[in-house]
Amino acid sequence: MATQPDPETLPDEPERGPLRRCLINRTQGRREEMLRFVAAPNGALVFDPAATLPGRGMWLSADGNVIDLAIRRGVFPRAARAPLNVPQDLRDKVEAALTQRITELLGLARRSGAAISGFEKAREWLQSGRGGVIVQAADGSADECERFAGGRSIPRVAALSAVALGRIFGREHTVHVVVAPGRLAGMIEIEARRLRGVAKERVSGQ
């Protein structure tokens, strides 16, 4: 049987096209669903949540265990071909950055009139066909969340706590949010999936 090559020694791939390859498991994924890291001019490893920072990207799957393994194996300095200051709490930093990104996207959706909160008002949007994605509090009642969705075939994510959602919508707490179909809804869904893969606990953003 032929010997399989070490995944970490396979040749690098250029940053072009819609797919990126994880440094750890070498699986390919859509760039917007992966995690991009770059080396800062001061030699620090930086997470690039929007994948817009200059420099050669180093990509990982959106999985907290993969981040931890990347630190233990020291893959970032090898991929950068230079010494790097890799924070040991990198996973926490990634989780915080993704939480902030979801918060900002939901805030943008609210300000643009593309999102609404509250059980009754949000359900009216669903019933009128204005739902692109359902965002529910991670610490909300599972039964109530199911009842709200009503079996509709609309993407449903739970990324932030009820308190964190409430802050976005000017309430003490919020469990149910509906975002209208469109680019923002798609971005929020993707960011929520990335956060779910990275987060150590289900409830974040408190």
Identify the notable features of this structure and list them briefly.
elongated; 3-stranded antiparallel β-sheet; Hypothetical Cytosolic Protein, Chain: A; 206 residues; disordered C terminus; disordered N terminus; 4-stranded mixed β-sheet; 2 domains; single chain; alpha+beta; 60s Ribosomal Protein L30, Chain: A
Secondary structure: elements and pairs:
Blueprint: E1 19-21, E2 28-30, E3 35-39, E4 45-47, E5 58-60, H1 64-73, H2 75-80, H3 90-111, E6 115-117, H4 119-127, E7 133-136, H5 142-149, E8 156-157, H6 162-168, E9 176-179, H7 183-198
Parallel strand pairs: 7-8
Antiparallel strand pairs: 1-2, 3-4, 3-5, 6-9, 7-9
Structure report:
The protein has 2 domains: 7-88, 2-Layer Sandwich (Hypothetical Cytosolic Protein, Chain: A), CATH 3.30.1230; 92-198, 60s Ribosomal Protein L30, Chain: A (2-Layer Sandwich), CATH 3.30.1330.30. Helix content is 38%, strand content 15%. The chain is α+β, with helices and mostly antiparallel strands and 206 residues long. The protein is elongated, with a radius of gyration of 19 Å. A hairpin with a 5-residue loop joins β3 (35-39) and β4 (45-47). The strands form 3 sheets. Strands 6-9-7-8 form a 4-stranded mixed β-sheet, with helices on both faces.
